[in-house]
Design brief:
This protein folds into 2 domains: 364 residues, no CATH class; 288 residues, Immunoglobulin-like, CATH 2.60.40. The chain is built from 12 helices and 36 strands. The strands form 8 sheets. Strands 1, 2, 3, 6, 14 and 16 form a 6-stranded antiparallel β-sheet that branches.
C-alpha cells in the first residue's frame, strides 16, 4: 500500500461525525451518554467553570448560566456536570521494587465505554529548536507518569511528519513513553533534515500546524468521551505585522497572512465543536527569556530563522479561547508536565443546552460564524467555553463514502461483531533479519456459513492486515478476499472451534511495531478487529535479549521457533485451518482454571566463559489486573548439550490453578544471566491471556 493511498485512507476513516459521546458516572456506577451537538432544534455546548484559585466548580445548575448567541440572550434549558475523574489505579502487589530494566507490563485495551478522556498531543516540531523538543518530551512524559488516569487514551502527532503517518491512540503507559522517547529534534521521517530556507517561512509553519490540528480533530470525531488537543509549540502565537511606513500599512503588507490564519482558526473552532474536542496551546519555550522567539533569533543549529520575523511582532493565539481551552506560558515542564491549569480543565465539564433562533441555520446564513458567549452568575467564577459555530446543522454533512474496513483497522478499539483474536511475535530469522509471525483466530458463531446444494457450506470474508512502526509508518499491508469451502464433515467442528489463519512477514530492522488485523463477513457486513504491540530489540548488539512468548499449538510451530527458519518469506503466508485439529489456536488464549499450555521463547546472547557454560535462571510471574497472584522460585536453565549460546530455545508448561478467578491475566517470563552485570543481565517478556468463567450449572427442577 503506498503512503498517498494510506493518507487518504486514514483521513477518510477519521472524518469527524456530527456528535461525540461523553460519559457521566452516577452514584450507581452506570454511565449515561451525553453529546456535544449543533442542530436545528438544539445546540449543546460544553463549558468548564473554575474558581479564583483555578479549581473546578461542579455544583452549578441551569439557573446559574447565561447564554448569548450573536449578543442575544438564549434560554438555558439544561445544565449537567460530567466528571472525567476516575478512581486511582490499584497499585500492583509486588515483592519489592520492580527493576527498571524490565519492560512495562502490557495493559488491556479499553472498551469504548471505559474511556474517560481522549487526548492528542500535537508536537509542533517544525517551529522548535533542539531544547524546545526536549521540553515537549518532558511535558508529555510527566503527564503520562503523573497525570494520566485509568480510562485515558493518548495519541501523539508531529507537524514535521505530515499526516500520512498512522498514529495509534494508546492506553498503555509503557508504549506511550516509548513513543515519546522517539520524539527527537531533526528526526523527521522521510524528509531531509537539512533546512530548506527558501520554502521555510511563516506560511509553512502555520499551514503544517493547522493541518495537523485539523487531522487530529478528524480522528477524534468518532471516538467517545470528551476530547482534548494539546498543542506544544515554540511559535504558539500568530505574529502581527509591523508597519514601518504609512505606505506599507495602506498596501496591507503581510496582513493577508494574519487574517488568513484567523479565518482558519474560526474553521478549526467549528470543527472542534462538532468533534467534541477542546484545544489547549502550550508555549514550550517555558521559562526562557522572551527574546527566544523563534522568529527573532537565528541560533538554532541547522535552522536559520533570522530575517523571517523581522516584519512581525509576537501576538496572541485565539484558538484556545475559541474552543474552550487555555493558553499556557512560562511553565516549568521539568516539574509540571502539562501543568495544573490544563489538568484542572481535563477533570470535568458542564453540558449546556439551548434552542437556537430559527434563523440560525437558514440556507443564506450557512457561512456565518455565530458568536456565542456563556456567563456564570457566581462571583469569582471564570468560564472556559467555545466562542461560536458556523450556521450548518450537524445533519447536513454526512460521513464520506469509505471502505467498511477502514474505520476498524485504524480504530483504537476492537470491533466485536465478529470475534477476531490476534497473537504475534518475533524471532530472529536465519539469514533473513527478523521474522514476525501472527496467528489470527476467527470465531465462527457470528460468521455467515451459506449452503450451496451439492457443494457444501461457504464463508466469504474480506481481510486487511498491516504492520506499522511506532512513528506510524506502514511497512507492510494486505487487503485480501477469501471464499472458504468447508467440507460437510468439518462443519460442526468449524462452528465450534472457528477458523485459524497464519500470517508470516519479514521485518528488516529492530524497533517497535503494531500488528493490526480486521475481518469483514461479506454476507452480513459484520466486522471484527484486533491489534498488538511488538518490540524487537537489536540482536546485532551483545546484549541479553528474549524473544516474544509463543503459545505452542503444534509440533511444527515449535520446530519453526527452535530453528529460526521459514519458507516463502518473500510472500505473505495466509493459510486457513478448516479441518479438525487437536491444537488450540495460539491467538485465542482463553483457558479455564485448571488448564495448562506449553509456551516457547528464544533467549539470545547468553554470556559464556572459557570452558564454562552459561549460568542462567528463569522465573515466571502471574498477574491478574496488574496485581501479582503467583511468583515461582528462580530455576536454573539446563544448558547441557548446547553449543550455541547466542540462541537458546526455552520451552515451559504453565498449569493454571483450579482456584484462579476468571479475568484478564499476564504471564511474565524473566530470564537472568548471572555472568552479566545486574543492570544488563535481566530481561523479560509478557503474554496476556484470559481465564474464562465456568459454564453455568443447569437450573434444578
Amino acid at each position: 500500500m503506498n503512503r498517498l493511498w494510506l493518507a487518504l485512507l486514514v483521513i477518510a476513516a477519521g472524518v469527524a461525525g456530527s456528535t461525540s459521546a461523553a460519559a457521566q458516572v452516577g452514584e450507581d456506577g452506570a454511565r449515561e451518554q451525553f453529546t456535544v451537538r449543533v442542530a436545528v432544534e438544539e445546540v449543546r455546548l460544553d463549558a468548564v467553570v473554575l474558581d479564583k484559585k483555578g479549581r473546578p466548580i461542579t455544583d452549578l445548575t441551569a439557573a446559574d448560566f447565561e447564554i448569548y448567541q450573536d449578543t442575544l440572550p438564549q434560554e438555558v434549558t439544561s445544565a449537567t456536570y460530567i466528571s472525567n475523574q476516575t478512581a486511582p489505579e490499584a497499585a500492583p502487589r509486588l515483592p519489592g521494587k520492580r527493576p527498571k530494566a524490565l519492560a512495562p507490563l502490557p495493559a488491556p485495551a479499553p472498551e469504548p465505554e471505559e474511556v474517560n478522556r481522549t487526548i492528542v498531543f500535537v508536537v509542533d516540531d517544525m517551529s522548535m529548536r533542539f531544547e524546545h523538543v526536549h521540553y515537549a518530551r518532558m511535558a508529555m512524559q510527566n503527564f503520562v507518569e503523573k497525570q494520566m488516569q485509568p480510562g485515558d487514551m493518548v495519541a501523539i502527532l508531529r507537524t514535521g511528519y505530515g499526516n500520512s503517518a498512522l498514529q495509534m491512540f494508546l492506553a498503555d503507559k509503557g508504549q506511550l513513553l516509548a513513543r515519546i522517547e522517539k520524539v527527537r529534534w531533526g528526526s523527521n521521517a522521510g524528509r531531509d533534515v537539512e533546512f530548506d530556507r527558501a520554502n521555510y517561512n511563516l506560511n509553512y509553519i502555520f499551514d503544517s500546524q493547522i493541518s495537523t490540528i485539523r487531522y487530529a480533530l478528524g480522528a477524534l470525531g468518532r471516538l467517545p468521551g470528551r476530547k482534548a488537543v494539546i498543542v506544544l509549540s515554540a511559535q504558539p502565537t500568530i505574529p502581527k505585522p509591523i508597519y514601518t511606513t504609512v505606505e506599507d500599512m495602506f498596501a496591507g503588507k503581510d496582513i493577508d497572512f494574519y487574517y488568513r490564519v484567523l479565518r482558519q482558526y474560526n474553521q478549526l473552532a467549528d470543527e472542534a465543536l462538532r468533534s467534541g474536542a477542546v484545544v489547549h496551546v502550550m508555549d514550550v519555550r517555558g521559562l526562557l527569556a522572551p527574546d527566544t522567539n523563534v522568529w527573532t533569533r537565528g541560533e538554532s543549529p541547522g535552522r536559520d530563522f533570522s530575517g523571517f520575523g523581522e516584519n512581525f511582532s509576537d501576538g496572541q493565539n485565539p484558538l484556545p479561547q475559541k474552543t474552550g481551552g487555555t493558553f499556557v506560558q512560562n511553565a516549568n515542564f521539568m516539574v509540571d508536565g502539562v501543568g495544573e491549569e490544563v489538568g484542572n480543565m481535563l477533570r470535568g465539564y458542564y453540558l449546556l443546552s439551548y434552542s437556537p433562533p430559527a434563523t440560525t441555520f437558514k440556507e443564506n446564513r450557512r457561512d456565518i460564524y455565530h458568536r456565542v458567549t456563556i456567563k456564570v452568575k457566581r462571583k469569582g467564577a471564570t468560564v472556559h467555553t467555545r466562542d461560536g459555530f458556523y450556521g450548518r446543522a450537524a445533519d447536513e454533512a454526512g460521513p464520506p463514502e469509505r471502505h467498511p474496513l477502514q474505520e476498524a483497522i485504524f480504530s483504537p478499539f476492537q470491533f466485536r461483531d465478529l470475534g477476531v483474536s490476534l497473537a504475534s511475535g518475533y524471532i530472529d530469522g536465519a539469514g533473513a533479519g527478523y521474522v514476525l509471525r501472527s496467528w489470527i483466530h476467527l470465531d465462527s458463531r457470528n460468521l455467515t456459513l451459506r449452503e450451496k446444494p451439492g457443494e457444501g457450506h461457504f464463508a466469504e470474508v474480506e481481510t486487511v492486515a498491516l504492520t506499522s512502526d511506532i512513528d506510524g509508518w506502514v511497512h507492510d499491508s494486505r487487503l485480501l478476499r477469501y471464499l472458504f469451502r468447508i467440507p460437510e464433515e468439518n462443519l460442526d467442528w468449524v462452528r465450534e472451534h472457528g477458523i485459524r489463519f497464519s500470517l508470516l512477514l519479514p521485518v528488516r530492522k529492530p524497533g517497535a511495531y503494531y500488528v493490526r488485523a480486521a475481518v469483514r463477513d461479506i454476507d452480513s457486513g459484520k466486522i471484527g478487529s484486533a491489534y498488538q504491540f511488538i518490540e524487537i530489540p537489536d540482536l546485532g548488539k551483545d546484549r541479553l535479549a528474549l524473544s516474544d512468548i509463543f503459545v505452542l499449538a503444534t509440533a511444527e510451530d515449535a520446530e519453526w521457533i527452535r530453528s529460526g527458519t521459514a519458507r516463502e518469506l518473500e510472500e505473505t503466508v495466509f493459510t486457513p485451518v478448516l479441518g479438525r485439529d487437536d491444537g488450540r489456536s495460539p491467538a485465542l488464549r482463553q483457558y479455564a482454571a485448571g488448564d495448562n499450555f506449553r509456551h516457547m521463547a528464544v533467549l539470545y546472547h547468553a554470556k559464556v566463559k572459557k570452558e564454562e557454560p552459561a549460568d542462567l535462571e528463569l522465573q515466571s510471574v502471574l498477574y491478574r489486573d496488574g496485581v501479582e497472584v503467583f511468583r515461582s522460585a528462580p530455576q536454573p536453565l539446563d544448558v547441557r548439550g548446547l553449543t550455541n549460546f547466542d540462541r537458546i530455545p526455552v520451552t515451559q508448561k504453565l498449569t493454571l490453578g483450579k482456584d484462579l478467578a476468571a479475568g484478564d491475566y499476564v504471564l511474565e517470563l524473566l530470564a537472568r544471566d548471572k555472568r552479566r552485570k545486574e543492570k544488563d543481565g535481566l530481561v523479560s517478556q509478557a503474554l496476556d491471556f484470559q481465564i474464562t468463567a465456568p459454564p453455568a450449572s443447569p437450573a434444578g427442577p
